[in-house]
Amino acid sequence: MTAASERQFAQVTIGEALGPFEITIGKPLVRRYAAACGMDSGRFRDDGEARAEGLPGMIVPGNLSLSLLSKLVTDWIGSGGGHLKRIGTTYRSMVLPEHRLTLHGFVTHVDSDSRAVEIDVWIENDDGERLVIGTASVEFPTTA
Q1: Which stretch of DSSP H or E encloses residue 52?
Q2: What is the pTM of this model?
Q3: Residue 70 counted as domain residue
Q4: pLDDT tens column, 110-122
Q5: CATH code of the domain in which 99 resides
Q6: Nearest 5°: CA angle at 64, between 27 and 130?
């Protein structure tokens, strides 16, 4: 994902797409992320321990999925002064490491008075199944 150089509020249109961006999250990254966050559960470290919990293998922590979607939005904002005010997600299915994921988003609402933008975001797998869905609110500064 790469940042737009300078996203301005006047450029934003309803239906504007963010992405798609493909990413594969490797197991070593999941382990490092979980360790850095103090997540000691075996579901984030080892396939065998995850299977003992009834999972198909290691899974990606939910907050790592959230951070990927946050980065999708902040990369779209770029350096134009806008900021991510809120993001919320719903986890519909497990995100598995070593699988190709695609990050998507699109602008659903633009409020000229408050200079606010609402964006739907999601992560899907190769089958097009939406694993994580959410909404983000972005605010842009008023112009002088």
Answers
A1: helix 47-52
A2: 0.91
A3: yes
A4: 999 999 999 999 9
A5: 3.10.129.10
A6: 95
